[in-house]
Amino acid sequence: MAPPIQFITGNANKLREVKAILEPQIEIQSQSLDLEEIQGTIEEVAESKCRRAADLVNGPVLVEDTALCFNALGGLPGPYIKWFLDKTGHQGLNNLLAAYEDKSAEAVCTFAYSPGPGRDPIIFQGRTPGRIVPARGPSKFGWDPVFEFEGKTYAEMESAEKNKISHRARALKKLQTWFESQQETA
Ligand SMILES: O=c1nc[nH]c2c1ncn2[C@H]1C[C@H](O)[C@@H](COP(=O)(O)OP(=O)(O)OP(=O)(O)O)O1
Ligand SMILES: [Mg+2]
């Protein structure tokens, strides 16, 4: 049996999806800590969050950072999507692209795992291509209603359906493969 993983997040929706995707193969324990998020590339943000979490927990930790990258804007808002969503809402995200024909976007999920304080984090990233559209479907989780993948917004999908194709699922597939290989060599 694999040991449980400590997943550090302040976001209950993220935690629900991570558990739905990984359990029962990998047991997830969690702590809610509001970790400082630096300014930098997607990977730098996840890595620094992970180092901070490993120090605070003083043990192995998993963290995640989600970015939403608009192709017409050279990848922005990227890791700053949380603040854009908070301040401008779903319509505001659409308005950002009003001047551009290209509404394509990429949802990027970056997990960082550290074996403990002072140890280099390992990064697992998943990307799902899509489009920014006027909101459709229930507003349960962040920007789900405005991110469309193959004709449906994330919000219009059953959770099992989202969890098959999402940026988060794709990243967790890589994490799971790595975790299993670690168990074999342990
Ligand atoms: O699948 C998703 N579908 C829709 N929205 C999503 C998703 N995943 C993250 N989100 C939102 C939450 C936050 O507004 C921003 C990411 O910011 P991000 O810093 O990664 O998340 P957070 O601060 O809520 O939790 P954490 O404590 O793990 O940092 O995009
Ligand atoms: Mg955050």
Protein architecture, described:
The chain is an alpha+beta fold and 186 residues long. It has one domain (5-185): Alpha-Beta Complex (Maf protein). Helix content is 37%, strand content 25%. The chain contains five helices and eight strands; from the N terminus they run E-H-E-H-E-E-H-E-E-E-E-H-H. A six-stranded antiparallel beta sheet has the order 4-3-5-6-7-8. The chain is globular and about 50 Å long. The protein binds 2'-deoxyinosine 5'-triphosphate and magnesium ion. 2'-deoxyinosine 5'-triphosphate binds at residues 9-11, 14, 37, 64-66, 81-82, 85, 141-144, 154, 168.
How is this fold's topology laid out?
Layout: E1 5-8, H1 12-22, E2 28-31, H2 42-57, E3 61-70, E4 77-78, H3 81-96, E5 104-114, E6 122-132, E7 147-149, E8 152-153, H4 159-165, H5 167-185
Parallel strand pairs: 1-2
Antiparallel strand pairs: 3-4, 3-5, 5-6, 6-7, 7-8
Helix pairs in contact: 1-5, 4-5
The site of magnesium ion has 2 residues, from loops.
